[in-house]
Each structure stands twice: as C-alpha cells, then as structure tokens.
Design goal:
The structure is a single chain. By secondary structure, the protein is α+β, with helices and mostly antiparallel strands. The chain has one domain: Peptide Deformylase, CATH 3.90.45.10. 26% of the residues lie in helices and 34% in strands. It has a 5-stranded antiparallel sheet with strand order 1-2-3-6-7. It has a two-stranded antiparallel ribbon with strand order 4-5. The longest helix is centred in the N-terminal third of the chain and has 14 residues.
C-alpha cells in the first residue's frame, strides 16, 4: 500500500474517461489498497483512480467514518426533484471551493474485488461524493458544472495559483 500523489488540474489524465476494469488482478488489488490509503486522511471525502494517475474506473470514499471503494461504478439514480447547493472542492483543484448544485440523493452500482455486485447510495455529502467521483471517471471536474460566473472566478483563481 502507498499514499499516492494527487494529480492536479491541467493534468490530461483528469480529462480522459477511464477504462472499465475487465480483469481483477494484482494490479487492481494494489490500486484499491492505494485508493483506500490515500483517501484515509482528514478532510478527504473521495478519490478517483485517475486522480492518482490510473485511468481505470474505480474510486474510494471516506464519509462519516466509513471508508470504502467501488470498481466500475455507474451512477444509476439521482433525486430529480431534490437538490443541494453548497460549496464543493476537489483534491485536484487544491484550496478552491465553489458553489456546485448536485442531486440530494445518488445511487451507484459497481463491483468489488471479488467481482460481486456493489450498491453504494446516500444523501447529502455521500450523494455529492458519488456524483463527484463518477464525474472524475468520465473525465469531468466539478468546475465543469459551475454556473458561468462562478466558473469564470474559478478559472481566474486557478491561473493565479500557477
């Protein structure tokens, strides 16, 4: 297991849709260990594989003292009539938080390391995390979901950090 470095905005791996995991081998097992160890730090809610430079569909979470992972996750349901508005941040966009609208509830389906079906669902922060991490695996950043004026502020702030 290893604590992995986080890729930051500008790295092309963050803008590339991740590949399905077709074979659960030692490399995938090691990836999951690294995802779990790297997310197990105060202030970290979720971590997608491409954020540590691996373009495979997997992410880990650390919400309300529960740490877990899912392979080949797909966002299969979100609340369509209940939303949450609040500041969202990202390990790949360090130090910046912007108001991002997300569904109040989300449900993800995938598999575990034994190839067995996994369902992860939740409301509020867990729902936000599930949506955020699935976006990562599709090559999106939360910045892409910002209202135009907020996105402009975010891009300016990112340029100022460089």
């Amino acid at each position: 297991m290893a604590m992995r470095d986080i890729r930051v905005v500008g790295d092309p791996v963050l803008r590339t849709a991740c590949d399905e995991i077709t074979d659960i081998d030692d490399g995938v097992r090691s990836l999951v260990e690294d995802l779990l160890e790297t997310v197990d730090t105060e202030g970290r809610a979720g971590l997608a594989a491409n954020q540590i430079g691996v373009s495979l569909r997997a992410f880990s979470w650390n919400i309300d003292d529960e740490i877990g992972y899912v392979l080949n996750p797909r966002l299969v349901a979100v609340s369509e009539d209940e939303y949450q508005d609040g500041d969202e941040g990202c390990l790949s966009v360090p130090g910046l938080w912007f108001p991002t609208r997300r569904a109040w509830y989300a449900r993800v389906e995938g598999i575990d390391l034994d190839g067995k079906p996994v369902v992860v669902e939740g409301e509020e922060l867990m729902a936000r995390c599930l949506q955020h991490e699935c976006d990562h695996l599709d090559g999106m950043l939360y910045l892409d979901r910002l209202e135009r004026a907020e996105r402009k502020k975010a891009m300016r702030a990112i340029r100022e950090q460089l």
